[in-house]
Amino acid sequence: MPSLPPCTGHAPWLSLSRRECLNRLALGLGGIALADLLGRDATAASVSPSPTLPLSPSSAAALPSLPHFTPKAKRIIYLFQSGGPSQLDLYDYKPLLNQRHGEQLPDSVRGGQRLTGMSGNQSSIPIAGSPFKFSQHGRSGAWYSELLPHTAKIADDLCIIRSMHTESINHGPGVTFMQTGSQIPGRPSFGSWLDYGLGSAHANLPSFVVLITKDKKGQPLMSHLWGAGFLPAKHQGVRFRSGADPVLYLNNPAGVSPETRRLALDRLRELHEHQFAGTPDAEISARIANYEMAFNLQSSVPEVTDLKDEPAHVVDSYGPDARKPGSFAANCLLARRLAERGVKFIQLYHQDWDHHGGLPGGIKRECQQTDQPAAALVADLKARGMLDDTLVIWGGEFGRTNYCQGPMTANNFGRDHHPRCFSLWMAGGGVKPGVTYGETDDYGYNIAKDPVHIHDLHATILHLFGVDHERLTYKFQGRRYRLTDVFGKVVKDIVA
Question: pTM of the full predicted structure?
Answer without folding.
Answer: 0.85
